[in-house]
Amino acid sequence: MLSLKIWEFYKSGDHMKLCKACNPPRYKPLSDFYVNKSSKDGHQSNCKECEKAKYRKYYAENPKRRKVYIQKWSEQNPDRLLQHSATKRKKDLIQIKARKILNNEIRSGRIQRLPCEVCGDLKSQAHHHDYSKPLEVTFLCQLHHIEAHKNEITNLPEEPAA
Hints:
Layout: H1 4-11, E1 16-19, E2 26-29, E3 33-35, E4 43-47, H2 48-61, H3 63-76, H4 78-108, E5 125-128, E6 137-140, H5 142-149
Antiparallel strand pairs: 1-2, 3-4, 5-6
């Protein structure tokens, strides 16, 4: 349960907090910080983006420790691992089905492969925004396709080409 002081802090509106890990340090809304009950304001000192970057760097620098951790977690949580595997398998099947439908349409000539919509490269790949709509795709080169999956592209067209 949150203390009365923290509760009043929340009730009073949208508050900002300084993330010193950002370069340069920036004020951000509290919603950009993970909850930490032991902190005065009830939130981590670093914003979510900086925390994620810190852990990505740590995992990249310590691949063996990460592998050991994953193996240990898998042994301790077999039921959650099975549930995760089943969910992932179902998601993968939906993606595979969408790719097959699109590839069949391209092969039959009903849909034409277009150049990358960002840079114009002729060697393009189909990017599905929604796998439940297998024929609604944006054609991107490999570089921009990878960036699209990382949500780093901001200038993609609003409506995907069909």
